[in-house]
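A quick aside before the break. I want you to see a complete sequence-to-structure record at least once, exactly as it would be stored in a machine-readable document. Don't worry about memorizing anything.
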Amino acid sequence: MIRAENVDVYNWRVGVNDKNRVFSHWITAYSPYPRLDINTSNLAESFNNWIKNIRDKPITTLLDGIRAKIITLQDKNRQQAENLETNFCPKMLKTMARITKEIHQLEMLRIVGHLFEILDRQTNRTYVVRLNENYCSCLKWYHIFSSMCTCMVCL
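That is the input. The structure line, written in tokens, reads:
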């Protein structure tokens, strides 16, 4: 369809002028991150399921029902937070317990300034950590958004 409208735009999009004729402008084909359309679809389906009993109501009733559901959810979360014995959520406590077990197998060596070398004695792998650049060669810190890098905690 784009080709019929404008050949130059089509050639640019599919990379005809590139040496290897790769799809150089289709960023999602090369992105290391998960695709968001699946997550968005799951979010929409979850929300629709959450409001399924009030979806067919008039708009004011629908909004009031959503408001009531949000208030109920916030109250439930508040009660759970009040029952916590620490300032950390349960998921973070599990992550910290896992890292505490893993950290004993690591050995830290300061090279220069913000540059460190971490030796994993169990796997005999060496990782480089650059604190000033927020970089660790294990790439957990860099690529996995919700993961704590054990190498960084070692420092």
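Two observations worth writing down. The first strand starts at residue 106 and ends at 112. The radius of gyration is 25 Å. We'll return to this after the break.
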